[in-house]
Write a structure and sequence with these properties.
Elements lengths: L2 H30 L10 H23 L13 H25 L27 H17 L2 H29 L1 H9 L10
Helix pairs in contact: 1-3, 1-4, 2-5, 3-4, 4-5, 5-6
Length: about 200
């Protein structure tokens, strides 16, 4: 299969998902006047998140500009797996739209909540408390499959781990804000995947 076809599809999927995220995050910041603490996660965690994030976003861009620059981490996947990555990527773009439509102006760049934050338990949040982490890391992982690149897949896994480490602090902030309402919500939903009912 022609590498350029996968590059074009990967670019369309990457820029679609990223564009949706930028639009809704900007809209949330405008709606709240940008009132969110950027230091809520502490210096070490924010440094780790920023470094992983920088590499995470630069790697796909380097692949799109010139795939040979990322050839050192090429896997040699069969085309059907790369096409599976295309399918997962498209589903992730739809998931990104669904989660941003669901959370509205409650989206934040840190584990802190906005002053006017309301607990969202509808849409995708009816089943999963932190779908952004699952969908976002799957989105980058799908790009790694399309790019046939283990390094990009590894960066997606590291990003998920960093977000999972931050999750208890985020949930503590949500419990502090919403109390039993959030505790009850936790009983019926999974953190990253829907909760299996007995």
């Amino acid at each position: 299969m022609n590498e350029n076809i996968f590059r074009i599809l990967a670019a369309l999927i990457l820029f679609s998902g990223t564009g949706i995220s930028i639009y809704f995050r900007s809209k949330a910041d405008r709606a709240s006047g940008g009132s969110i603490s950027r230091s809520a996660d502490g210096n070490l965690m924010m440094t780790v998140i920023r470094l992983v994030g920088l590499v995470l976003w630069l790697s796909p861009l380097v692949y799109l500009v010139h795939p040979a620059w990322m050839s050192w981490s090429k896997i040699g996947l069969p085309d059907w797996i790369r096409w599976l990555g295309v399918g997962i990527g498209i589903l992730c773009v739809l998931g990104i739209y669904w989660l941003f439509i669901s959370i509205g102006s409650g989206i934040t760049p840190t584990s802190a909540t906005r002053k006017e934050h309301k607990l969202v338990t509808s849409g995708i949040y009816r089943w999963v408390r932190h779908p952004l982490y699952t969908v976002g890391s799957s989105f980058i992982g799908a790009f790694g499959l399309m790019a046939d690149n283990w390094f990009i897949i590894m960066m997606a896994a590291l990003a998920f781990i960093a977000m999972a480490v931050r999750t208890p602090k985020e949930e503590a902030n949500l419990i502090a804000k919403f109390g039993d309402e959030y505790r009850n919500y936790m009983k019926t939903t999974g953190a990253f995947l829907p909760k299996l009912k007995p």
